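Please discuss these two lines.
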Amino acid sequence: MVTFGDTGLKVAVVGCGHGMLDTIYATLEVECATKGWAQIDLDLLIICGDFQAVRNELDLNCMSVPKHYRKLGDFHKYYSGAAQAPVLTLVIGGNHEASNYHFELYHGGWLAPNIYYLGAAGVVRYGPWRIAGVSGIYNTRSYGKPHGERLPYDRDSVRSAYHVREYDVQRLLHLRSPVDIALSHDWPAWVELFGDHDDFYKTKPHFFASALADRLGSKPAAELLSHLRPTYWFSGHMHTRFAATVNFHDGLGMEDALQRLDNVPEKLRAVLPRVPRSKKPPTPPASTATKTEFLALDKVGSNPTFQWLEVRNLDHPPHADSPDAAPYLDRTEAGKYSLHYDEEWLAVTRACAPGLNIADPVTLVVAPSTARKVPAASVDKHRRWVKANIVDKKLLQIPFNFAPHAPVYSPGSEVDQNQQPLEYPNQQTAQFYDLLQIPNRFAVSSPADASGEGGSASEVGMDR
């Protein structure tokens, strides 16, 4: 077998998964062969949202798609154990998800064996590589709100459940160490201007109209890009393949980089953000990197394959040999790295935990969430706690603690298309809170406590 860890990271990236795991893994095997690799040589498969972790037919009723577009997909086989993911698979959420299952794993966790969800926002380590992600899509009306959606979802909450929240973005903005790979479902706003936007706008004129109205892409993702400056940023959502290189200058952020572009359509200049008068970014950047390579990919099933799948070898990150990387470098018997929690992210999670509020499972009352006012000194204090209680005790490796707890798909069963599932307490989330020794905001003693009898909900009107 190839011991690829010494030569870089062999990674495959998919845009939108749309529940087609069998197609993804079968195509991946073929694409690897074209590079002279075996599929098992891959380190990671990354899927940039619309993964659709549908365990059973009731989960379909928690997905924001019209009824005639609802498809069970392949995931249920991987959840039940009938199929096994051949490659360690990392996923984020998009706007077509079984949001109830993602809510159980708000802080991330194994959706199925060898398939790991990064959570509403999350950072993990794979060897020396540091990977950050934010799930969902940006919606201005939902952005400042807490996570107030609980089962049973109504026609509004089934949509807002997948909207990005300021609380989660602010947590990522607390990062002060470099990130190598960042993931978002929708694109960072204005990123298309750093690539061949003329062709993009010509082939997608409705996107140009959205750009003129300042409604294209995610402004919070752009803020994260400006702060994190990862080596690579991968996205899906727009159902097209697009590459760009964002060049940063003089320690300044996206606003400055945009103003330096000389080929922006004149109509767009009026809506671009201005450089802050201070000539300094609003928050200190997490990285001194001078550029980010952006790549967006199409949905699975588009033709040709290279529109939705990219297989490549990434060079070692510049900080691979730093002392901070040492706790993450142990290899498995197969010669690969294991997924680890990120030390700094655990500290941020602890520091921001008092500001996380979710809806009460019975009354659905929720207080505002905030991560803005957490000072850097507080994160430093919690990092010392993480070092003493997790790092020094060698507890950073993410445990393989997946266990199915929701009903698995049963062919031939009859399910009401309006019925909502029960809310299940997830033991992975409980164990994560135990690790951090903080109160579990997602604890429910039983499904019935969270969702009554789990009977029929009012008809759910869904958008695409």
Remarks:
- The domain at 4-451 is CATH 3.60.21.10 (Purple Acid Phosphatase; chain A, domain 2).
- The first strand starts at residue 9 and ends at 14.
- The first helix runs from residue 21 to 34.
- The chain has a mean pLDDT of 90.
